[in-house]
Design goal:
The chain has one helix at 11-27; strands at 30-33, 46-48, 55-63, 70-78, 87-95, 104-117, 128-139, 150-159, 168-177, 185-196, 202-209, 214-219, 225-228, 241-251, 260-272. It has 274 residues and is mainly beta. Strands 1, 3, 4, 6, 11, 12, 13 and 15 form an 8-stranded antiparallel beta sheet that branches.
């Protein structure tokens, strides 16, 4: 027989302890780029974009004064008007040149504004726009011959037409690629981390903890959100990449108003695993 002891700890102490632990975890990362140079460093980044006739406006440049310089990313894309079936998507930003070495990323993100207008004649075509870290981390198959089985994970700030008011959703998720171009995907887990207002700087963190078979997501100093998976993760991704980008999915549409997605964001203080 034993006596159960009750621990009584003041809430203020718990808050301070949680903050200290969060900072301790972040301190294990190393600064990769704070964008204080005059130009995007070509040794640290490669361009991330696809041929995309739906994009009409796109910005990828450093802006602001040296002590407060940021990576400015902006994109506006419209729907294809050929039919009312399916949707088109893509991303625009910067990618890590050695993606296989990147398993954890923390970065400051400020979404200045985001708009997502859907299609009345293609309601099943999802529209979303977001600013995010996205990448293919591993492949679930033992001997893959294409992207089928690649697991893509992301953390970002997004907007969809059903969002109420100005708040933006912060979420982390990972999917299985179902075709050779990863255009079709199966969701394996999706976690809402919270919401933020436009113009507010937030710190986002994603970690692939392969030994424990987890993806870890974190918003600011909030508690980590740990998602455990049971699929095989020993095979490298066929199409390996990690990118910080602004992206969107816009449904095809033959009616008006013409759907479009637009987002404007700034990124700073990118940290990665040693």
């Amino acid at each position: 027989m034993f006596t159960r002891l009750k621990w009584v700890i003041p809430v203020s102490v718990l808050v301070l302890l949680g903050s200290a632990l969060a900072k301790a975890g972040a301190s294990q990362l190393i600064l990769y780029d704070n964008f204080q140079s005059r130009k995007i460093d070509p040794s640290k980044w490669t361009g991330f974009q696809f041929f995309d006739p739906d994009v009409r406006e796109a910005v990828r440049q450093l802006s602001g004064e040296e002590e407060n310089r940021r990576l400015h990313l902006s994109v506006t894309a419209y729907s294809a008007t050929t039919d009312d079936s399916g949707a088109s998507g893509g991303g625009f930003g910067l990618a890590f040149p050695n993606p296989g070495a990147v398993t954890e990323v923390s970065f400051d993100l400020n979404v200045n504004g985001a708009v997502a207008v859907g299609c009345n004649s293609n309601p099943s075509g999802q529209i979303v726009t977001d600013a995010e870290l996205r990448g293919n981390f591993f492949n679930m198959e033992s001997s893959p011959t294409s992207q089928v089985g690649d697991v893509v994970a992301a953390i970002g700030i997004s907007r969809v037409p059903t969002d109420v008011g100005g708040a933006l959703t912060v979420a982390g998720f990972y999917n299985r690629c179902d075709d050779q171009f990863c255009g079709s995907q199966t969701n394996l887990d999706y976690r809402v981390l919270g919401s933020v207002q436009p113009g507010v700087v937030s710190t986002l963190r994603i970690k692939w903890d392969q030994p424990a078979h987890n993806f870890i997501f974190q918003l600011n100093n909030q508690a980590e959100v740990v998602s455990h998976y049971t699929v095989s993760d020993t095979t490298p991704a066929v199409f390996s990449y990690k990118a910080i980008n602004v992206g969107r999915v816009v449904p095809h549409c033959t009616t008006t108003p013409r759907p479009f997605a637009s987002i404007d964001a700034s990124v700073s203080n990118v940290y990665v695993n040693p």
